[in-house]
Specification:
Helix 3 crosses helix 5 and helix 3 packs across helix 6. By secondary structure, this protein is mostly helical.
């Protein structure tokens, strides 16, 4: 009898001993989740991440988003253009540095924010399903340590 894809995937996940392969699998799975959940807004993961950074950072520049989040500058620039086209963010000149542009949510961007926050929370809940609070906290800290370690590569 041939196993279905989900059985094969479950077996692979349980047997794999390569952290990079598991991280890659998690990344690809979350990409699919965001593609599905954000399709009605014509957005993907990169757009979501930049939009959340604009919301959380209160008027950041593209450069500050890239450097603070570890994103590629080109990815941020392309995401900003798309978010402007979708009328979700706008750029304004920074009064302290006329060469710099601050990114702000538009009314349309603010209006979809609750749904974007829900999507992010649902993903987190799915990732930590069957974990108690202590295990969730510990797992998140382990992931942070791994991220800090690979940031030095």
């Amino acid at each position: 009898m041939v196993k279905d894809d989900s059985e094969t995937t479950t077996q692979w996940i349980q047997e794999i001993e390569m952290p990079a392969a598991l991280i890659s699998y998690i990344y690809r799975s979350t990409q699919r989740y965001f593609a599905r959940e954000l399709s009605e807004y014509h957005l993907g993961w990169g757009h979501f991440a930049v939009l959340m950074a604009v919301y959380e950072m209160d008027g950041p520049s593209q450069e500050s988003i890239a450097s603070s989040r570890g994103f590629d500058k080109t990815m941020v620039a392309k995401s900003v253009l798309r978010l402007e086209e979708e009328e979700l963010i706008t750029r304004i000149t920074d009064t302290n540095d006329r060469r710099a542009k601050k990114l702000l949510l538009t009314d349309k961007g603010k209006s979809i924010l609750p749904e974007l926050l829900r999507i992010g929370l649902e993903l987190k809940k799915s990732m930590f399903a069957d974990f108690d609070e202590a295990a969730s906290y510990q797992s998140l800290n382990v992931l942070k340590k791994i991220a800090l370690n690979v940031s030095k590569l």
